[in-house]
Queue: 2 jobs
Job 1
Amino acid sequence: SFPSTVRLFEMSARDGLQNEPGDFIATPIKIELIERLADAGLTHIEAASFVSPKWVPQMADAHDVLSGIQRRPGVTFAALTPNLKGLEGAIAAKADEVAVFSAASEAFTQKNINCSIAESLERFIPVIETARQNGIRVRGYVSTVMGCPYQGEVSPSAVAKVAQQLIEMGCYEVSLGDTIGVGTPLKAKRMLEAVTQHVPIDKLAAHFHDTYGQAVANLYAVLEEGIQVIDASVAGLGGCPYAKGASGNVATEDVLYLLEGLGIETGIDLQKLINTGFWITQQLKRNNGSKVALAKGAC
Ligand code: HMG
Ligand code: MG
């Protein structure tokens, strides 16, 4: 049955901008995006990633972005931290929460973070321990949960294994990433069923990209299974630099419209969110990837 409330985790400032080609997006634009999202009622916002600027140039100003945000009670500003160096950066910039990220596919893990799945988990042990000592919660990501751009099929049991390990290591929640958006609803259900044999549903989030236009349908399928946390990106911005052809996360506006239709509470103002999506796509000179935003328009 459907949950009565859903927590949205906003990805646009990180997943949405990390892959943006062309000019470096100025720090004040990133900060303004994040503040507009918080104004719209989002309580969980991934703001940046502390990764190698050689690998992901758009995130080079992670420190300045996190330090520049006007903090507000009740809003969590998070950052990706693949290793201890990243965590140190996140602590210095006063991130409220951090995230480690691995994948269910070996090939993808190599391309994305230059190590094996097992090595990535080894690396996360001191990250999670140090974060805990600093009172910072750690989220975990498993990428390529419904397919990999390099190896193709990914088995649900491989996803379950990495998700279980991340929880056992101390992540409070694991977000299941359909990195290249190849999933379909039945596949999403089967994948989630495999994972929930090892991890309770209230410790899982759905992080679906919309490359094949299936993300809203896939979310409906996992909501039916009881998923209560959804990652999304305003205007459908984004994609992973190490997943060729991957388009953005499902648009937050589209998810909110779906949830409102199901009578599920989020506390977010749809019109403010739509306005933010139009504002940022104008800044980036990009099309708005949210169908709901295009239908309703800015005002
Ligand atoms: P490496 O080259 O194996 O690491 O990269 P290294 O330890 O040998 O370091 C190499 C250089 O990077 C050194 O600098 C380090 O200081 C520096 P140099 O001596 O050459 O000048 N370095 C760092 N700099 C800043 N921050 C750091 C850091 N660590 C090392 N934390 C590394 C390993 C993980 C760093 C690299 O592979 C990397 O940065 N990868 C980027 C991964 C990434 O950001 N991917 C996109 C996000 S994941 C995603 O989008 C999927 C998700 O959305 C879910 C889904 O959709 O599935 C989450
Ligand atoms: Mg992603």
Job 2
Amino acid sequence: MVTRHQVLVASNRGPVSYSLGEGGELTAKRGGGGLVSGLSAVKGDAVWVCAALGDGDREAARRTGGVLDASDTGGQQVRMLDIEPEVFSDAYNGVANSVLWFVHHMLYQTPTEPVFGAEFERQWRSYEAYNAAFADALAEEAAEGAAVLVQDYHLTLVPGMLRERRPDLRIGHFSHTPWAPPDYFRLLPDDPDGGVGAEVLRGILGADRAAFLTRRWAHAFAECCAKLLGAEVTTAEDGQFAVVHEGRATRIGVHGLGADGDFLRERAHREDVAERMAALREQIGSEPADNPRRTIVRVDRTELSKNIVRGLLAYRRLLDDHPEWHGRVVHVAFAYPSRQDLAVYREYTEEVSRVAGEINEAYGTSDWSPVVLHVKDDFARSLAAYRLADVALVNPIRDGMNLVAKEIPVVSDGGCALVLSREAGAFAELAEDAITVNPYDIGATADALHRALTMDAGERAERTKRLAAAATALSPTQWFLDQLEALRS
Ligand code: G6P
């Protein structure tokens, strides 16, 4: 008998990934994040539908028929879709990460980019096919009237496609990114018969509820629907709003995902984190022992929207403007490579290393490296840096939320001053106790770093306490359960 599920999650990246050894053995690696804790809190029958992302995943999907071993997934039922590699690459690299990600983060150098030609047309057809594969699998797995929570810009067409296949379902869509304002969003091809921009909006409007991380992104989505589709935006007395298009209403929700305080505090005090703190202290150097060097910490995926290079240039400017910091501060920058199939990400990764190297070359001495850069992803080392940080630098050009800004205050040992971009979603909740910056302004960011470094220890501790409280206001589990409840109500 086929089990049909009451709760379904769909996302490109699933809760587990596999690597394939030389002898053909598969090793599973479990991921974390809000969806993992949320889904594990669901009582009853739930399943997670995701794509096979690499050779290991594909092999695992083939050997198991796509239904993964629960011991690899922490007990969660997972269905992994083995999508044809060319189709997957067009959809993931071509459309999702080179176009939709760039639109929502407003990353294009518009005099030359983007160029929508024959290549994009093919990629877009692949994106449709990849979304259809998810819609088919969800339609198969869902019990009558089940709740389906579709995630992110990879899967914008799924709600509409799934509604056609299964009108009985409750369908939600959640965007983890910012949403572009209409004047930027409309650079997507949009002709009278539909076009890409309109297809994306209509796809999401196939959901009963479309949700976002902040009100800012939710409003931008509604404005795009109004301007591009001529949809009506209605607001109820309690401030809840909806987008009405072709006779159907899609409710709009906001759920500001928070940091997982209990998990982080426990995890950050394990032995492996203590070991990494000792190693980092060694690298930072603490001369003289009674007045250790200050640390400015950043932790990011190396990704263009994170603005790592401008962060390094601001640090360089700090050293220029304030020679008193020479030998007294270290910028601990963890920049973990991501999406390396794309040249633009590879080039950015190289640029980060180059600029960090130039700063060390120009200012470093025999016993002081102004920048300590690590590029190998290591969660325990990230937590070690969080605990040590005097200052956290979170300066994205645009960011759906930015959980690093929320995690650092939670695990900080001695209090940490937060320098935060006004373009991060987290700004909506943390602005009051952060030092906020325009992410493009290198001089202002350098000034903010100086202010953060010279902040009185008492004030810093007080602010960190308030930041931690704001950052944990909505736990990942509650974030997920709230969405589920709102979808069912
Ligand atoms: C962002 C997106 C997620 C994505 C993550 C990592 O947070 O909103 O959907 O999974 O980046 O990116 P990747 O391309 O490695 O999955």
